[in-house]
Amino acid sequence: MTYMIHGNLILAMAIFTIGMLGILWKRNAIAIFMCVELMLNAANLVFVTFAQSLGQARGVAVFLFVITVAAAEAAVGLALFIKVFNDKQTIEADRLDMLQH
Amino acid sequence: MEFSIEQILHSLRLTSPLLVLIFAAMAVLVADVLLPRAHRWTLALIGMAGIGLALVALYWARPPQPMDTNYLELAFGGTIQAGYLTFLAHNVILATGLFLILISPNYLAGRAVPHGEYYALLLLATLAMMALASSNELLTLFLNIELLSITLYILTGIEKNNLRSSEAGFKYFLLGSFAAAFLLLGIGFVYGATGQTRFDAIGQAIAAGRILNPAYLAIGVGLLMIGLGFKLTLAPFHMYAPDVYEGAPTPIAAAIATGSKVGGFVVFFNLMAIVAGWRDLPQGLWVALYAIVAASMVVGNVGAIVQPNLKRLLAYSSIAHSGYTLVPMVVLLRRPDLLAEARVAVAYYLLAYTLMTLLVFGVATTLGPLGEGRISHYAGLGRRSPALAMIMALALVSLVGVPPTVGFFGKLRLFSVAIEGDHIRLAVLGVLASVASAFYYLRVTVTMYMEEPSPEAGERLIPAEGVNFVILTVGAVGVFVFAVFPWLYLFAA
Fold it and tell me: With a CB-CB cutoff of 8 Å, which residues 42-81 of chain A face chain B?
């Protein structure tokens, strides 16, 4: 049982790290947002793992809430991307440099 | 878990200010559809009425008198709490919401901003700030942070035909959702380490030593610090703040700088108060928070010196002030016995910081496009608009922390907690940082009074408009009133 918890946590940490590195490397906003989703789902995996090991339903309920919030966030994010794309014809994060200049 | 009718009614009463704001936001949206040609003040008036009713509800459900700083009541199965700090934070947040709605109509005139959505989202953001301060459960904390963040992403990018607004919303969204992932992972580890999600249950588990795995708890608390650190713009998680403040509409930048941070500070304080009960708290957590606070004070004050733009300067100033506000929380990790003093000090500084920052943003909003640009645009303001320049100068002097203003007494309370709790070096660093901050705050004042206006700005006199002028004056009076009579706000010494 302990072995499974640790295995799951290592997997979740690996996914979280991949997402984090992706955000640092990727420039396209859609790709960055996909990496954020990867990180959120890694966190979900942590919740489900602990819910399993503690024998509680609470962790699984958290996961359902997070999925819903992520969907709402995606809707707002994509709307902002479209707005930026209409203005600048690009959503590459490093080509947006109006501020500070 | 079972609920009796009495419990549900009690919960509804404690959360009534939040419920009122939900209905107010809906009312604004409905009115926007029903009255397509409404005057620009109509929707703002509905929003103000909503905030007024929420204030009434807040005092209907207020803590028993005389107020006890340890007062705490739980609602909805312990997911929502009403306590001393929460109650005071609710007052500050509602006042902030009212202030922002009052200065918005003149600012929005002639801008491509949909009014209905703007006021409805501003009310929802106010609601989310209050709910964040009331959070007593980890999942509730996450949902409230997300509600606040999502409304603020939209509000930041709400202005059409304004590339800066779009870009600010875009950057805020990407970094905000990145931070949310850290917060969520931290929540996961704290849950895994204690088997609890309610703050009070986690606190009992920690105090009784019922920790399933101390390593998970340490990782979880560390990740929570990072996740909330983004929201509170603590160094080194502050990179987005200057861009977002510069690009967002000025009243929204004010909301991000004040109200959203007030909610975040309260929840951060409550979390640290729990963690402080951990008998063998890992040294690393205290060192990490110490380093974050010291870095925020240094980065904020050094960064502000070179900023040519007023809103960017305010962003760095708010990073530094986040550092000051967290000083009692660092002390708390080592000296849990100072909980009551730390709570009062933080509560007082929430008001002080919000009041001073709102005044500066309020003047910038009143000046419109002129106020959003470079600091050099403020040259000669002392002659062109003596009243606004005076209010601005007063707020800046208070931000430095000169007596007898709220800024001085706020910092005095924060740093005396540090000295009482044997964190003298942190207090000294805070005082030195405040002294250094005089340089850039007073530079703005010097620009306003001593420099000749640039040809583009002209010699034109700027009339102080009615409503804006009245509320700014009220705020300016508050800078002295709350300094001399702190009990008006704290309800206790």
Answer: 42-44, 46-47, 49-50, 53-54, 56, 58-59, 61-62, 65-66, 69, 72-73, 76-77, 79-81
ipTM value of the model?
Answer: 0.95
Would you call A49 and B192 a contact, using CB atoms and an 8 Å cutoff? yes
- Domain ranges (residues) in chain B: 5-490
Chain B residues touching residue A16 (CB < 8 angstroms): 181, 185
Question: What is the distance between the alpha carbons of residues B58 and B14, in angstroms, rounded to a whole number?
Answer: 8
The reported pLDDT for the residue numbered B61 is 87
Per residue in B18-36, pLDDT (tens digit) is 999 999 999 999 999 998 8
| Contact between B170 and A96 using a beta-carbon 8 Å cutoff | yes
Distance of CA B81 to the CA centre of its chain: 19
pLDDT at B238 over 70: yes
CA distances from B322 to B4, B134, B179, B260, B353 (A): 41, 20, 17, 12, 9
- Cα→Cα distances B14→B260, B268, B294, Å: 21, 21, 37
Q: Which domains does chain A have, with CATH numbers?
A: 2-95 (1.10.287.3510)
- Which has the closest alpha carbon to B178: B229, B217, B243, B218? B229
Q: What is the C-alpha to C-alpha distance for residues B145 and B260, in angstroms, rounded to an integer? A: 9
